[in-house]
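Changelog-adjacent note: as of this version, every example in the card shows the full chain rather than a window. The one below runs 380 residues end to end.
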Amino acid sequence: METTLTASLVETTGEVPSPRSFHQGVLANGRLIVWGGSCSNGESPASTDNSTYSLNMATRHWTKLDIQPAPEARFLHSACLCGNKLVVFGGVQQWPVNDLWSLDIDLFEQGNPAWERIEVASGSPSPSPRAGHVMVSYENQLYIFGGGELEIKDIDIWRFDMSTRTWTEFSGLGNVPPCRALRSVTLVGDAVFISGGKTSNQGALGDMWVFKINEWKWYRFPELHSQPSASFGYTMSTVEERIFLIGGLVKLNQFASAMTVYGLNTNLIDFPEGGSVITVKLAPTIGRLRDPSMDSSGGEKGLEIGPSEGPGLIVEGPVAEGPRARSSGSQIDEGATSIAEGVENIRMDSLGTGPDETDPYLGQDPDIIPITLNAITGTM
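Full-length structure tokens:
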């Protein structure tokens, strides 16, 4: 089957959020809701913002909501949807915190959205204050993985029951991932996919792990051809059974390959009974990538390849035009530096040097570059 992937800058109106990093956003009821983050705006140290921003995906119009009371401004927090609620946990104010807040998304339509601080039941333990962790929701429960306060902790797992408002700490079965911060996470069914991140000593990581909630067990991905390089802080999202990864940093001032997109078809992997390494199926399919440019005869250029050796089809070729990755002058530098000053466990200032001078994208137009698709996919 044929695959065409394009990206374009979305022009928006309204009260647009200021440039920021280490914020969180969720998509719900046709709205993109953004909260928190480190907002540099050329300032040092970077400022923070506790306003709620809502982008109507149909009209592409931003609305800024100053809802009070609200969580104190922060960054490196976690957030996810749990039912009809946006839930925020932890992050960095001046120091890491461990409070839990929710925002009822349905109240947006009624015009009276309100934040609620979720009070933990008396006698319940709680996770330590932390930043750089990740969180997902499954069957009205929140699952928090990792993070740290004064150091990057092991991958501890905490579950919060939204009904009883109690926390429980667990240790997963099987091989446990190395400790890390700034990892990326997404959920497919009961499988929590955790990828990348960084450690204080080793820098960026390129591995992927899966935690099966219903089995309470960790599984490790084998090394795959054309898998993402070691990086941290990228976006990982789920569309039906497929996971897409984009962006990230390999060092403080060095971005991962400009706008390379990775895709994983989760239908083409198995979790072996009694084992801890995920089994990858073969997929005898043929795919084509279309170059949006046309050849001299008016026909469309394309790349066609045969059966893959990984989970689905591994393809690479020019796809479309998209936004250029920022250079080292971006606001993220100051945001990351402020994190290093405020939270010792992140220590991002010790990880990187300048941007890679050999990066072919650095000489491109400042707004537009070609995108390359590196997709591990079945049929799309």
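Structural remarks: Helices lie at 106-110, 331-342.
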